[in-house]
Structure prediction request, 590 residues.
Amino acid sequence: MSTINKAATQVDATIISNKRIGAYHQIILSVGEAVRHCKPGNFIAIQVGGDSSRMVLRRAFAISRTSESAQFGGTVELIVAPHGSGSKWLCAQGEGAEANVITPLGRAFGIPTEPANALLIGGGYGSAPLFGLADLLKSRGCKVDMVLGASNGSKIYAPMEGKRSVNSLKIFTEDGSMGEMGRVTSQLDAIIAEREIEIIYSCGPMAMLKAITEIADQHGVIHQASVEESMACGIGICMTCVLPVKGEDGSISMKRSCIDGPVMDGSSVCWDLVGKSTEGF
Amino acid sequence: MSAAVDLSTTLGNAWFPSPVFTASGCASSGKELAQFFPLKDIGAVVTKSVMNKPRHGRPTPRMAETPSGMLNSIGLQGPGIDAFLANDVPWLLSQGSRVIVSIAGETIDEYAVLARKIRSTSGISAVEVNISCPNVENRGLVFATDCDTSARVIEGVRKVIGGEIPIIAKLTPDVTNISAVAKSVADAGADGVALINTVLGMVINLDTMKPHLGGKTGGLSGPAIRPVAVRAIYQVHEALPDLPILGMGGVSTGRDALEMILAGASGVSVGTASFGNPTALISIQDELRDLLAQRGFTSLKQAIGYAHR
Prediction:
């Protein structure tokens, strides 16, 4: 047996619920015992389009939260933006529909061994995996603050029940339609200093993760970033989802965001080299 | 239903218990798929084409889904042959897997260097000589678009390793006459051919209005190219009925595998289907066994090239 994705299983999952929330769909899937191995930061790869689909690739989604109940067994919650043909298909599925899934996949968020002051930063539906993370961090004695941002209010995902584990929540929108006008990084310097932040967890677009890394590095704060790069397989065999990552010896290598991520040490990712040729570095 | 069909096959002097293999570049080095099924249960793992030196590959975006297929533009990212032979091959052999090592070079000499290193490693079943990767900086590097350069690469490899393990030349369908290229590599000492590599393609992103892939062009794979592969296998088997063929290109069901075998393939590699379904190889193998039994075949070998009879 392999050491890669050793908890992953492939199962036919049933959609338990599919609700529209703002610009997104909250989809709950019954996945059985696989849920016991799902940690915040892990993702799920879903076959889309049905048997005669012309879509040959799975779609990867961050797991937002998990639960176990007598009625549905193990379930995972996903926050899906109906952008492309695969996510639109998934969002159009009703309760009782089935989909083949593989989960849990990828590297989860690392949890501090001692209670720490943690700041969770989400961009758009990138906030999805942060609420499950907040619950876990709080249960380990961490103080959890959260900053969310999006282009407008309909793209902020912040469910009422998700805020239980959060000490404070600040929202920024670029058009000012919710919270304060600005970006998640607008007041980041002050927040890190005032709240004595020791670790930052982030999930969102690449440009946001890069901007957070720069500020986190200035403050010497650990930054675990959950990256999003398009994947063909989600299990490490296609080599399409790579990012340039600096090793301890300073050498750069192309790491797969599906198995070496999606959670990566922000300061080790060479954000400026993403999408550029690194041959010869 | 577990039908009594002998699925074993041969490529040159190498024997395999099943004709269903991974496709090069679609299984990495095997560890990732081993979570989903025992690698010894399939015919062989064909590893990702490895070069002499470690290589980063092309910039992202490296893929685009297309109707019933995808474009990839990886550019032969890999650890280099020394690390590969030291780490990946022993691990695969420890799993009881048969191993076909795929090699790629920038020069004719590099292929010979790679072959020499493979020769000094025991346990490898065959070598696939990838002379047709579309994702290299210079399209001129696609040796398999020219009969003479194809033959020279194979001849260099044959001089080093010929007669010890089978040499399988992987060809591109992006040529006018694939049978002529197959004949030139067979004459140069190839023990078989792998048909087909991906088909060169492009997707333009309507947001940026520029080519979507970092490498601009990419290799098209998946069910979209399957009829191209079946045609290539049929043509080459017709021209060279004694040359073993490893067929590939969009195989995702047992039906697709049988189609290639009837066209003349002695084995079938599964690539893009594993991206969508990591257990595709196992279901394809099971379906193939049943389909052969339903047609009265008691062995795979009886079905190879049946479409020509």
The CA atoms of residues 8 and 163 of chain B lie 21 Å apart. The two ends of chain B are 29 Å apart (CA to CA). Residues 9-56+79-202+222-308 of chain B form a domain with the TIM Barrel fold (CATH 3.20.20.70).
